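User: Sequence in, structure out. Go.
Assistant: Echoing your sequence, followed by the structure tokens.
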Amino acid sequence: MNRRLSDLLDFSKELSIIVIEDEEIVLNQLEKSLKSFFKDVIIAKDGNEALDKYFDYHKKNNKFIDIVFTDLHLPNLNGLEFCEKIKPYNEKQIILATSAYADVNDLQRFIDIGIYKFIAKPIDFNKLFDAITESLEKLKETKKHEELLSELNYVKNENIKLFEQASLDKLTGLYNRRYLDDILEKYANSNFALIFTDIDDFKQINDNYSHRVGDEVLIKFADILKTHTRSYDFVGRWGGEEFIIILKDTDIDTTLFISEKLRKSIEKEKIYEDISITSSFGIALHDKNKTIEKVIDEADHNLYNAKNKGKNRISYLNNIYEE
């Protein structure tokens, strides 16, 4: 026996097959022959019995029978009808069919159901063996493909976890300081707007309600920032209650519009139970003639200017923005 065939036979020992045949002598012959190949050989004499056994097997084993071998002409529920009933539940089901005759009108239904091989009666066991061998090859290839997809998904999920651990703030889910520093460095030769914002009088929330409530306020504040900025903007937690937003290729008018939308949304929102807050904003624009350190300092300075001028304000170029 060659290595390929030996491997396929070893593989078949993990698999199952259901044989649906109303001629008892033929059914017994098939059952006896196939038991040497498959782990599970399930037999049925008509389509209704096969349907019950097919779904019972799935319920008990949490997987479908691997191969269906059915006569097309059966009492109660014929082979084609049986296949039509199971196919919506298992689109990849491998079906081998047999019959003493095949009506030409059934050909389109053969195609629609996706019958893998047809073996005419009386059954030539050499042809049946060849059909089963080809089915095993197809199943083995499918299994390899599924295992590869599973491995790729695992690697992808692990990479996502690593990215989240390295790049996202654990509390708010926004980008963290390290990732924001990387983005700013990459934008060193680009035009962008930088918004610094933080929660006014945040210390009072921690002191009056608890740090747990303070965390809930930070989470809700972060959600508002994310909801009212564009999908391609970078929103992150700079530290404590201070957050930044990086808007690439955005002019001052658009930056002021976004900042004002955020300020109003935060002002009117019930952040946590009966707690309302306000926030202040500092804006700076960057171009290739300005260093990253300089634009950060300008945005930070404007943020403190907004706070010094009464809080719940937006400052740009040391001036308070009035809508």
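User: And one key feature?
Assistant: The chain has a mean pLDDT of 89.
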